[in-house]
Specification:
2 helices, 62 residues, Alpha-D-Glucose-1,6-Bisphosphate, Chain A, domain 3, two-stranded parallel sheet, two-stranded antiparallel ribbon
Length: 62
Amino acid sequence: VVSTVMSNIGLEIALRKKGIDFVRTDVGDKYVLDELLKNGGELGGEQSGHIIFPNRSLAGDG
């Protein structure tokens, strides 16, 4: 999972407890997408509400 530095720390803690990798990026869906593509991530999002599923679309949902 990729999200921005604005993400709630609780999200990171919950994901890591489940063994799910979590990466933070600068703010902006461009940075989230870049990280997803670089590391083969499956889900990305940011506080503004953009959600990115790179296996379906390289554009945010919003």
